[in-house]
Amino acid sequence: MTEQLKNDNAEILDTDIVFNCPHCTKSLVIDQSAAGMLVKCTDCGEEIEVPGGAVEEEALHEQAEAPEAIPTVLDSAAEDLAAALAASQQKVQELVAEKQEINKRRMHLEDERMANLNRFKLISREMNTITAAVGRIMNALRNVESGGKS
Fold this sequence. Notes:
Number of helices: 2
CATH architecture of the domain at 16-68: Single Sheet
Oligomer: single chain
C-alpha cells in the first residue's frame, strides 16, 4: 500500500486509473502502476483493490481469446434480424406473384372489354340497318294505303 490515491485537485493523467470505491462510490484516481494493489479509500477508509491488476488483465485476455465467452445477445439479435429478413423476402415474393396474377387478370378483362366494344359497334350498325329497313317498309305501307298516290 505504498501507492497513494490522488487528491481531488490533482490532474488526471493518461497513465492514471479512474474508478469508484465499491463501498461509498467515491470517484478515485491512482497511477496505473498500482493496478491490483490494495489501497484505502480517501473518503470512507475502506480497503479496496485497484482495478486492472494481473487477475483482471488475465480475465480480459481469456475473454478476448474465447469468443464463446462473448454474450450471445448480438447473435440472438442477428438471428432475429435474419428471420425477419427471410419473412420479409418471402412476403415480397408472394406480393410479386399476386401482382403478376392481377396483371394477367387485368389484361384478360381489357381483352374482354375490347371484344364487347366491337360487338356493341356491330349491333349498333345492324340496328341502324334494321331501323332504315323498317322506315322503308313504313313508307311503302303508307303508299299502299293512300292508293299509290305519292
